[in-house]
Amino acid sequence: MATQQVTFVKQKIIQYIYDHKLKYGRRLPSQKSFCTSLNVGSATVSTALKELSNEGILKIHDKVGVTILRPNTDGHIGRYIGITPPPLITSLYNCCLLHLLQQYLLARGCQPVIFYCLDLPEIDGFQLETFPGLKRNLEQHALDAVFDLAGLSAEVQEFANKANTLICKIGFFPSCEMNYVNYDMAEYITGAVTRLRAKGCSRLGLLVSDTSTVNCLQLESLQSITMISGIKTVPDGIRWIHEALESGMINNFDGLICFDDMVTLAVASELVRSTSKCKSSPWLVTSGNQQIPLVYPLKQTIVCMNDLDIIAKNAVDSLLSALQSDHLEPIKKTLPFQWKDYSTKSF
Asked: Which of 23, 82, 89, 111 has CB 3.0 to 4.6 Å from 146, enough for a Cys bridge?
C-alpha cells in the first residue's frame, strides 16, 4: 500500500508541474502543502520527492527546497517494459525473478508486459516468432525496453536495435552480451571447478542447454570438463540421468556442474533412488536462490546462492537509468553470489 501511495504522489507532483507550466529552476510548493492537498503523510511525500530526484526530475536543496530540473519529463511512470521468460517457466529461479521484476517495475510506475513462449529455443537462441506479440510491439514502438530472461537470438536484438528498443539480459549469460545484469558465468564455472577439485573430484561434467554459450568464455578449466549438452528442461535432465545410470556412463563422473536448481534436484533424486546402478554418487554443484531454497536429497551438493531480490532491483534501476539518458547508456552489471556446502552444513 505504501508503494502505491508513493507512486500516486509522484504522478500528482508531475501533473502539478505540467498543469502549472513550471519551468527549469522553479520551486515546488512545500511538502506540507502536498500532504494536505493529497491527504498523505509527510514520509510518503518525502519518499516520492527523493525518487523523482533520483530520476533526475527534481533537485532537493537543504534550505531552498525542491526545484525542477526537467519540467517536460513524465519520469518513468507509464513506461511499458516487456519481459520474455523461458518457455513454461519450469524453473523456480525464473518464476521468482519474474515476480520480483514485476513488483519493482510497478513500484516505479511502469507497466510490465509479459510475452509467454511455449516453444524451445533454436541453437542460436529464441526467435521473434516464438514470442507471440513481441514483433508487433517492437514494430509499433510500443515498448520502451525488454528484460530478456530466456536468451533471445542476435537477430532479435538487432531487430530491437532498429526499433530503438533496449534489450537487457538477466541471469547467467556471458559478459560479452551488449546489455546485461547477471551473475558471472565464468566466475560460477571457475568457482564450481575449484570447489569440486578441493573435494578430490577429477572427472567433471557440465550440464548445459548448448555448448556455444559456454565455449565463448574460453576458460582454461573447460578443457578438462566433459560437456553434456541438450539439458534445457527438467525432463531433459531426467532423461539424461536415466540413460547415464542404465549405460553406466554416470560412473565416468565424480562431479557434475548444473545451472538450473530444478534440474539438479531431479538428478539428485534419481541418484539417491538408483544407488545400485552407481558405484559412488558424484558431487553436484548448482545455482539456487535465497527466496526459494531447495533441499537436495544428496548430501554431496554445493549450492551457489543468488539473492534474486537484489538482481531484480539492480536490473530495474539500471534499465530505467539507461532510459533516462538522452543516449541509451550500455548496461553492464555483474552481481556477487555466495557458496553453500551441504556436506559441511555451512548454510
From this structure: 82
